[in-house]
Design brief:
Distance between the termini: 81 Å
Shape: elongated
Number of domains: 3
Order of helices and strands: HEEEEEEEHHHEEEHHEHEHHHHHHH
Helix content: 40-55%
Number of helices: 14
Strand order of the largest sheet: 10-9-8-11-12
Strand content: 15-25%
Oligomer: single chain
Largest sheet: 5 strands, mixed
Structural class: alpha/beta
Length: 337
């Protein structure tokens, strides 16, 4: 087997053939002079063959996946062709986007690594400067999202995330049926989510939305009810449990402020024990919490209410869940917490 063919098979280089190669020991780079394999002189828009007009003098370089600590560079002199439909244009490059500096497979790995780790770590593994990786990442995302269209949207979820150490926020709208993000907007609140409904969805698409899930934000709930006439609003379980835990914690803080030094010793370390789900508690944890019935009735009452609400998620029949919820709310109102 020839060396060039061996390198092509080893690196799994598809749709191209290796003409020549040489090593650069100083930069730890393997340079491969390549050319398209039986796919040259095609238009990148319509994939039709065209007449070759000229070949670029200086070869272009595309970075590929690093192998054993060596950076792989693909070198090729693109040709300009005369397409019958699109006129004078640069030929299609099968291993990379028209104006990219990296190959498709390096771009894919870059996106996957950026999901699973920090950009700094991904840059170290791929042997790319962090600033370069950030630029390539944004360029790839912009190109992939170009021409993105929202179709068949029936169930949506809305939430916000924070970044830059909680100094900035972004609103995310995702498709619950397909488990994918459909829109990301800068900022949070009513103005941001109104931008999505007004600019990204037509009147027909709004009518097709049947289910919407969000937290208990009045901005999101109001926007959903105003823009989607046929929607059923669902409050997600995470935020309801979070609100219950916050209510229990408020009672604990109030009792902590009123407690004497000896009582504070007994209450110390209860916070995370009160938050714990019944399925994750040991018998010892339950006994400690039940001791609050004599030590501090208000905290015990709040914990019992939070613990009893867990039964709500097990109901299948709507009428039974509604009956339980009304009874639980009556108990909560009479608890004087």
């Amino acid at each position: 087997m020839a060396k060039n063919k061996f390198i092509r098979k080893l690196l799994k280089l598809q749709d191209l053939s290796v003409v020549n190669f040489w090593f650069n020991s100083r930069d730890k780079t393997l340079n491969l002079l390549v050319k398209p394999y039986k796919n040259g002189a095609r238009c990148p828009k319509c994939n039709r063959r065209g007449r070759i007009l000229r070949t670029v003098d200086a070869p272009r370089c595309w970075s590929d996946l690093p192998v054993c600590g060596w950076t792989i560079c693909l070198l090729y002199c693109p040709r300009e062709i005369q397409c019958p439909t699109h006129g004078r244009i640069q030929e299609n490059i099968p291993w990379a986007d028209g104006h990219a500096r990296i190959t498709y497979r390096l771009e894919y790995v870059l996106l996957v690594y950026s999901q699973q780790m920090t950009q700094k770590t991904a840059a170290a593994i791929l042997r790319i400067p962090k600033s370069t990786l950030s630029e390539l990442l944004h360029r790839s995302i912009t190109r992939i999202r170009d021409g993105h269209r929202i179709r068949g949207l029936k169930s949506i979820g809305i939430d916000e995330i924070s970044y830059a150490k909680r100094k900035k926020y972004a609103t995310i709208v995702y498709d619950l049926d397909r488990s994918c993000v459909v829109w990301v907007g800068r900022g949070k609140g009513r103005d941001t989510i109104d931008t999505f409904f007004k600019t990204k969805l037509s009147a027909y698409q709004k009518q097709q939305i049947k289910w919407a899930s969000c937290d208990m934000s009045r901005a999101y709930m109001g926007a959903i009810n105003d823009h989607c006439p046929n929607v059923t609003l669902v409050l997600d379980r995470f935020h309801i449990v979070k609100a219950l835990n916050a209510a229990v914690d408020e009672v604990r803080k109030e009792q902590w402020r009123l407690a004497s030094p000896d009582q504070k010793k007994a209450l110390k370390g209860l916070r995370w024990l009160l938050f714990r789900h019944s399925s994750n508690r040991t018998k010892r944890d339950t006994r400690l919490l039940n001791l609050l019935r004599k030590g501090n009735r208000r905290i015990h009452r709040a914990w019992v209410l939070k613990d009893e609400f867990e039964k709500f998620w097990d109901y299948k029949a709507p009428w039974a869940a509604e009956r339980f919820l009304k009874g639980w709310m009556t108990t909560a109102l009479k608890s004087r917490l």
